[in-house]
Amino acid sequence: MSRTRTPSPQGSPQAVQSGGAALSHGLKQRHLSMIALGGVIGAGLFVGSGVGIAAAGPAIVLLFIGTGALVMLIMRMLGEMSAARPSTGSFSVHAEEELGAWAGSTSGWMYWLMLCAGVAAEATAAGTIMHGWVPFLPAYGWVAVFMVFFCASNLTAVKNFGEFEFWFSAVKVTAIVAFLVLGVLGILGVFGDAPGTRHLTGHGGFFPTGAAGLAAGLLTTISGFAGLETVTIAAAESDHPSRNVARAVRTAVWRIAVFYIGSMAVVVTLVPWNNPRVATEGPYVTVLDRLGIPAAGTIMEIVVLVALLSAMNANIYGSSRMAFSLVTRGQGPRFLGRVTRGVPAAAVLASCVFGFAAVVAGIIWPTTVFAWLLNIAGCAVLVVWSVVCLTQLRMRRRLERELPELLSVRMWGFPYLTWLALAAILGVFAVMCAGAQGRQQLAGTAVVAGALAAAGHLKQRRDRRAAGAL
Questions:
Q1: pLDDT band at 313 (very low <50, low <70, confident <90, very high)
Q2: What average pLDDT does range 238-256 have in this prediction?
Q3: What's the pTM?
Q4: 15-24, 25-34, 192-201, 266-275: which range is least confident on average?
Q5: What angle in degrees, to the nearest 10, is found between the helix axes of 345-364 and 139-156?
Q6: CB–CB of 89/326 below 8 Å?
Q7: Which has the closest alpha carbon to 93: 402, 387, 468?
Q8: C-alpha triplet 183, 216, 282: angle, nearest 5°
Q9: How far apart are CA 326 and CA 64, in angstroms?
Q10: Tens digits of per-residue pLDDT, 400-450?
Q11: Average pLDDT value for the chain
């Protein structure tokens, strides 16, 4: 059910409160700019992309172009809505206002689940790296150290999250830019013979694994983009929410094009896609070794660790803010809405506890409970994106009719590109249905999403009855 609200002044504290509990505005423009810049560079790009290359071959570039284009459209929609109405709950708040409580609850809690599962996976990977360097402490011990550290930093002040993410992002951006420069020099023959196109066409062709490989690579590329939405959540705690989120979204196009598509093009041009090291050690290590860069493995291991810690930090932040927004709208346990010194402390603790419980599940039940959780989390982003498309269709028409001055960021080609994005997401669901693993993911996701939607629908009915009794 759509509801009309009187807008608060853009960027004012009132505009980014949830349920009357105010969060602090400790993030500065430099924090948000670097969060937006580094947010597209995750551990999935440095490591997970190798699995996609092994599955799809050189055609991974086309997959990243396609999925990158979809993500650009989603980010533009988020930017339009968040610039018009900044909110800690971002798309979940907008979905509730435009579609109803069921949509806000489903998208919000699915996103929370995805981020918390991400915290567990990233903490586990980071602990494994640290154990290799400092073996006297077991991997799960390092996991506990990282969880406690980032939980404490997120509990103290939002500016701590901003500072950590600023420097983490600086390291990631520097690393990827250096890689691209070295890669282009390698393609030009500065580090030996120029490869030409022999790796693009000489190992089974540009589409060596056919449609099946493209389908497998598609799911990998999409998962690499999950979490980019956090910048629209963080913007609500910055000094000028509307202006800052607009700037962040407007630069998303070239960031995705340069960092993802550019780096994948460099990798498949410089090394054979079927080199086993691409999947086992990672494409970036393989390329740097091919160029003769000393200690390439160690350098990339450091960068990957930074990327993992950055993702942990961002996911704890994003999940806690989403949980806070949900509960202050009556979509969860009230105690999670407790705010201490401008920080949703209870929501931070709950997100960290769930993340650590998922780590424990990964140790005790790695192939059952943990695998089930990761499967649902991997599909959750598609559910969120679907809700974003439907919400933007409703919200844009209403704002054009009632408050056009709030549309400082506008979705391109509305409504046609919005419908195209939604059709693309449905296409991904169809591709997943073709494989047994994909069907398993969809089944688990459908059960969780259905339960959340039902709970939200019941709340919506209760609210209507309560309003009618007044």
A1: confident
A2: 74
A3: 0.88
A4: 15-24
A5: 170
A6: yes
A7: 387
A8: 35
A9: 33
A10: 999 999 988 899 999 999 999 999 999 999 988 887 777 888 888 898 899
A11: 84
One-letter amino acid for residue 341 of the chain: R
**Which residue matches tokens 């999947």?**
279
Structure tokens at 313: 């930090």
Three-state SS letters, the chain: CCCCCCCCCCCCHHHHCECCECCCCCECHHHHHHHHHHCCCCHHHHHHHHHHHHHHHHHHHHHHHHHHHHHHHHHHHHHHHHHHCCCCCCHHHHHHHHCCHHHHHHHHHHHHHHHHHHHHHHHHHHHHHHHHHCCCCCHHHHHHHHHHHHHHHHHHCHHHHHHHHHHHHHHHHHHHHHHHHHHHHHHCCCCCCCCCCHHHHCCCCCCCCHHHHHHHHHHHHHHHHCCCCHHHHHHHHECCHHHHHHHHHHCHHHHHHHHHHHHHHHHHHHCCCCCHHHHHCCHHHHHHHHCCCCCHHHHHHHHHHHHHHHHHHHHHHHHHHHHHHHHHCCCCCHHHHCCECCECHHHHHHHHHHHHHHHHHHHHCCCCHHHHHHHHHHHHHHHHHHHHHHHHHHHHHHHHHHCHHHCCCCCCCCCHHHHHHHHHHHHHHHHHHCCHHHHHHHHHHHHHHHHHHHHHHHHHHHHHHHHHHC
Contacts of 152 (CB under 8 A, 6+ apart): none
Give exposure, 388-419, as e/b (b: 16+ Cβ within 10 Å).
bbbbbbbbbeebeeeeeebbebbbeebeebbe
Contact 261, 178 (CB under 8 A): no
Contact call for residues 320 and 93 (beta carbons, < 8 A): no
> For position 267, what pLDDT does the model report?
93
Looking at residue 99, what is its pLDDT? 93
For residue 2, name the pLDDT band (cuts at 50, 70, 90): very low
> In this predicted model, what pLDDT tens digit does every residue of 69-81 receive, in sequence order?
998 899 899 989 9
Amino acid at 388: V
Which is nearest to 103 in space by CA: 466, 461, 455?
A: 455
Say if residue 350's pLDDT is above 80: yes
The pair of structure tokens assigned to 198 is: 């022999």
**pLDDT bracket for residue 270 (50, 70, 90):** very high
Sign of CA dihedral 258, 263, 268, 271: positive
CA distance 299 to 277: 16
Neighbour count for residue 52 (Cβ, 10 Å)? 29
Asked whether the CA dihedral 123, 128, 129, 134 is positive or negative, the reply is positive
What token pair was written down for 18? 């949830």
